[in-house]
Specification:
CATH topology of the largest domain in chain A: Rossmann fold
CATH class of the largest domain in chain A: Alpha Beta
CATH superfamily of the largest domain in chain A: P-loop containing nucleotide triphosphate hydrolases
Strand content of chain A: 25-35%
Distance between the termini of chain B: 105 Å
Strand order of the largest sheet of chain B: 4-7-2-1-14-16
Shape of chain A: globular
Distance between the termini of chain A: 29 Å
Helix content of chain A: 25-40%
Strand order of the largest sheet of chain A: 6-7-8-3-9-10
Number of strands of chain A: 14
Strand content of chain B: 15-25%
Number of helices of chain A: 10
Radius of gyration of chain B: 31 Å
Oligomer: heterodimer
Number of domains of chain B: 4
Structural class of chain B: alpha+beta
Helix content of chain B: 40-55%
Number of strands of chain B: 21
Shape of chain B: elongated
């Protein structure tokens, strides 16, 4: 069942068309939002989180019209922006209490329980009484995740949540949202495809303000079926290959370079067809080279 | 706790943890510390403590406003700059709660700045000579002025931050204060273009230089300041609501928008009403002043040149006011009712039917009668009395003249009350024409302005010098006025004022006391009386010397210590009986400058009377400089006179100066006697322009040889 429906969404910044005719249907669980820089992911996230108004279209979240019932939507919302900055003079615990109160958790005991649980979940208990200005980038990010999850929001939007997290914290984070995804709708916007690959069931790819793909993560990989090739050329040809093909990856072996490219036809007589991954599918969609 | 309260509490906690928070308090404390230390360090005070406070309050308040305004922009914009706002706006928090919560924190901070100023003022004013009621009134005035302005500027800060989401919002605060400052700058700012711009400041600025007026304290501005600041306060609330409406308007709830719009409309009504009343009050004062300027406008170029060079000299009038008895009532604010009995002496040579009196045109004559048949007519300030039977030379006429009206008068674009009668202050200078003066007199002189000022004219008081003294008997009736009062004649035991004076009458009432030095009464604010007494004692020695030398009374009978703006308006009426001194007159007494001031009281600097009068004036100064032992660097009067900068070469200076110098070569006493003769000769002239130095010296030599 869809909890978030977006139909014909348009957003313009002065003369720049940021989002064009966006149609998305998102249900309970983890939903990945992929796209290069400037694709419109953050704009879409800001609109869904009621930060920005939009020009046209219809958006409903858990049945509430975003345009008319913004306040109701905010009651369902947990949001972590791309750049999260909490007031530096607060301690981590103070800030979460403040955020919890603003989110409407009026009962002090309930708020304390939630704050302590989230501090535990994001591994900030040892630092909870330190001023935020002393936090590292990763700690501040974890605090941001904690504030987004305060108040048990039904609709959670996380913009680049794992940026700056070390691998162990990233795993911890994945586990937390994995658990939450059973009951809630979570939109994950990220550049890190492995985060989406490991967590999300469904994904949308945005580029230039348009939705190029939406579907399951598995189907995204299939977008590049028969279009992924690997071949080996002398290292001296590196520049030529880079100009002629969409390269997904390359590595050097002795005096040769091994390229993984996306192309409808074999880029070389010796090129070998490869089984596509989600990253291959994403590159194929972005570059318009789908099967 | 409501979310607004929650935001307030947490934002206040954040602000308290900001180490830079204390800086504005330190700045204000240093400013006031310097002011108080400088004042209290003086052994004798020539200016009231409150005057010193208000002289500095204005610029220190501007610093406070700047700091509070910048803090408001910071409070409103800090979370936008740090992007924390991007998180908060996704919470279930209303725009009103968020903006108003932070606005309250800024207001609390502003209130602390005001409270600190009030604390400093309150403690410092306890050292002054004011009653508890006045002490409270002064605190209330500073509170409404500073807090009202801070309240407004903080709301503006929030509005700027909502409209401009970058650093330019900060620049708007000093820009706004700069505009406000220019709006009140009467000499060069917007107020020069139109003095009504004075009203467009976040604090009441309807005064000249300082709201404090010596013996009248802040009573003259208090009521209007309350009204002004009430309008500012209402405007501040409206601006806050506008700032909330402009804060991310798409996320405002419909009910929130409606409520704010409704409140704005509701608040605009009293704001317009109060602002309108304030405007109307000032406009009435300005119109009265403009009427004064138009009414007394000089006709012709001659009048214009005389305006700038000297008071218009009035030809001798054959009538003299021999006796004036006044019973004065003050039934309500600025309203006066007077029953007068006048005795007029006719000193002319031929029988005459008409006598002219002068009384301010706002005072209507209710009775004009005598034991002889007469008829009275009015033309502006003039009262023409026509006697059916001609008045014979040396006759005395008794006249009953009753009048009443509003005596309130304004000067300086309506910013200065020139005459007023209120429950806590009175000022009725002679120039206000509040009692009948003999002859047709110009109470005011007015000419076309030479600059771009709005009113297009300049005014000054008329000369109003009398030819003969008058015996006055004045009774202030009723008990409504409970404040100390003083007249230019002394108070008798029965409470009335009795005495003969050639100067006339100026009535003052306020926080005043009297002291005496010799025969001279000094009337002023209790805090400056010591200083005034010391200065008078300094002059006393010179007055005595001059009286011994010239043989004419020099020491004044009474000295009023007035605010500079009021003292300045008495300058055109030279009198040896009455002086009005300002704090500058009593505070800055330089021995080398004193001879100039002493002589200026006897002979004005009169360019149009020619060089001969100037030589006489300088010769008198030279004698006084010599008496005081002040080194000029010149041995002879002629050399000193030439070196005063008036003449490039000795040949250019008037021959009279050299001729006068010859007496000095004979001896100092001969020079003194010659100068004395010249002065008395000058004194005796009806038309001072007829003074001819060489002719007078020739006459002196003739008289001396006999």
């Amino acid at each position: 069942m869809n909890t978030v429906t977006i139909a014909g969404l348009h957003k313009t910044y002065r003369s720049t068309q940021a989002l064009t005719d966006i149609h998305l249907e998102i249900g309970t669980g983890l939903f990945g939002l992929l796209g290069p820089n400037g694709a419109g992911k953050t704009t879409l996230m800001k609109i869904l989180s009621t930060i920005l108004p939009y020009d046209d279209g219809e958006v409903t979240i858990y049945g509430a019209d975003l345009n008319k019932e913004g306040d109701k939507v905010r009651g369902l919302l947990g949001y972590l922006p791309q750049h999260f900055h909490a007031p530096q003079q607060f301690t981590g615990r103070e800030f979460l209490h403040y955020a919890g109160s603003l989110k409407g958790i009026a009962n002090r005991q309930e708020r304390s329980d939630q704050v302590e649980r989230l501090l535990e979940e994001v591994n900030l208990v040892p630092h909870a009484d330190k001023k935020i200005k002393s936090f590292s980038g990763g700690m501040a990010r974890r605090l941001g995740i904690a504030q987004a999850l305060l108040g048990n929001p039904k609709f959670i939007m996380l913009d680049e949540p794992t940026a700056g997290l070390d691998p162990s914290e990233r795993i911890r984070f994945r586990n937390v949202i994995e658990r939450l995804s059973k009951d809630y709708t979570i939109i994950l916007s990220t550049h890190i495809i492995s985060d989406i690959e490991s967590s999300c069931e469904r994904v949308a790819v945005l580029n230039n303000g348009q939705v190029l793909y939406q579907g399951t993560t598995g189907d995204l990989a299939q977008q590049a079926l028969h279009c992924i090739w690997e071949f080996q050329v002398p290292y001296a040809d590196y520049d030529r290959i880079e100009k002629e093909h969409v390269i997904i990856s390359s590595r050097r072996e002795m005096n040769d370079s091994i390229f993984r490219v996306v192309a409808r036809r074999p880029p070389s007589p010796h090129a070998a067809a490869m089984q596509p991954t989600m990253e291959d599918g994403y590159m194929a969609v972005i570059n318009g080279v789908t099967s | 706790m409501s979310k607004q309260g929650l935001i307030y509490r947490n934002e206040l906690r954040l602000l308290n943890r900001n180490p830079f928070l204390i800086l504005p308090f330190v700045v204000l404390l240093l400013c006031w510390g310097y002011v108080i230390f400088s004042y209290e360090n003086q052994s004798v005070h020539y200016e009231e403590l409150a005057a010193e406070f208000y002289n500095n309050f204005q610029w220190i308040m501007l610093i406070g406003l700047l700091l509070a305004g910048l803090l408001a922009v910071y409070m409103a914009g800090k979370d936008h700059e740090s992007e924390f706002e991007h998180v908060v706006v996704t919470y279930k928090v209303k725009n009103t709660e968020w903006v108003a919560g932070k606005w309250l924190v800024a207001q609390t901070y502003g209130l602390c700045l005001t409270s600190m100023t009030l604390l400093i003022q309150g403690v410092w004013f306890l050292n002054g000579s004011m009653g508890m009621e006045e002490w409270i009134r002064n605190l209330a005035y500073v509170c409404v002025q500073m807090e009202g302005a801070i309240f407004f500027i903080i709301s503006c800060g929030f509005l700027f931050a909502a409209l401009i989401r970058n650093m330019i919002a900060y620049i708007c605060i000093p820009a706004l204060l700069g505009i406000a400052f220019l709006a009140q700058a009467n000499s060069y700012g917007f107020a020069l273009v139109n003095p009504r711009f004075n009203l467009l400041t976040p604090y009441d600025s309807m005064y000249i230089a300082s709201p404090y007026d010596s013996i009248w304290g802040i009573h003259g501005v208090f009521d209007e300041a309350l009204l002004h600041q009430l309008a500012v306060f209402l405007l501040g609330v409206i601006i806050l609501f506008a700032a909330i409406l402009l804060f991310r308007p798409h996320r405002s709830l419909r009910i929130e928008k409606r409520m704010l719009m409704t409140l704005i409309i509701i608040l605009m009504l009293p704001a317009i009403l109060v602002g309108g009343i304030r405007y109307e009050h000032y406009d009435r004062a300005l119109e009265q002043f403009m009427d004064t300027g138009q009414r007394y406008m000089s006709k012709g170029a001659n009048g214009e040149s005389l305006f700038y060079t000297m008071p218009e000299d009035r030809p001798k009038y054959p009538f003299a006011m021999e006796r004036t008895q006044l019973n004065v009532y003050f039934p309500s604010e600025n309203w006066m009712k007077v029953d007068s009995q006048l005795t007029i002496a006719y000193n002319g040579d031929v029988p005459i039917n008409d006598v002219s009196l002068t009384l301010h045109h706002q005072l209507a004559v209710t009775d004009c009668s005598s034991h002889v048949q007469l008829s009275c007519s009015r033309d502006n300030d003039g009262i023409r009395i026509h006697f059916h039977d001609a008045i014979e030379p040396d006759a005395r006429i008794d006249l009953n003249l009753d009048y009443e009206g509003n005596i309130g008068q304004f000067r300086f674009d309506g910013l200065l009350q020139h005459a007023f009668v209120e429950s806590d202050r009175i000022y009725l200078p002679k120039e206000a024409g509040w009692y009948p003066l003999i002859g047709e007199r110009h109470l005011v002189e007015s000419v076309r302005a030479r600059d771009d000022r709005y009113v297009q004219f300049e005014v000054r008081n008329g000369e109003l010098a009398e030819d003969y003294p008058t015996e006055f008997d004045v009774t202030i009736m009723g008990q409504e006025i409970g404040i100390p009062m003083a007249l230019t004649i002394p108070r008798a035991k029965d409470g009335s004022y009795k005495g003969a004076t050639q100067y006339g009458l100026s009535l003052i009432g306020g926080n005043l006391e009297e002291a005496s030095v010799g025969q001279t009464r000094i009337v002023g604010h209790p805090e400056v009386l010591d200083g005034a007494r010391k200065t008078t004692e300094l002059y006393q020695e010179s007055w005595s010397y001059m009286e011994g030398w010239l043989g004419v009374p020099i020491a004044p009978k009474v000295i009023y210590i007035l605010d500079d703006d009021y003292q300045d308006r008495t300058r055109v009426m030279p009198s040896r009986e009455f002086y009005a001194w300002s704090v500058y007159d009593i505070g800055y007494v330089d021995a080398s400058f004193m001879p100039y001031r002493l002589v200026a009281n006897l002979i004005n600097e009169i360019g149009s009377y020619g060089d001969d009068v100037s030589v006489l004036q300088r010769a008198m100064i030279w004698v006084l400089l010599d008496h005081s032992g002040i080194e000029t660097g010149y041995g002879q009067f002629g050399d000193w006179y030439a070196a005063e900068g008036r003449y490039a070469t000795h040949e250019q200076k008037p021959k009279g100066a050299d001729k006068l110098s010859h007496y000095e070569e004979v001896g100092k006493e001969q020079f003194r006697q010659a100068v004395k003769y010249l002065f008395l000769h000058y004194e005796g002239l009806e038309d001072k322009a007829e003074f001819k130095l060489e002719a007078a010296l020739t006459a002196y030599e003739g008289a001396a040889s006999q």
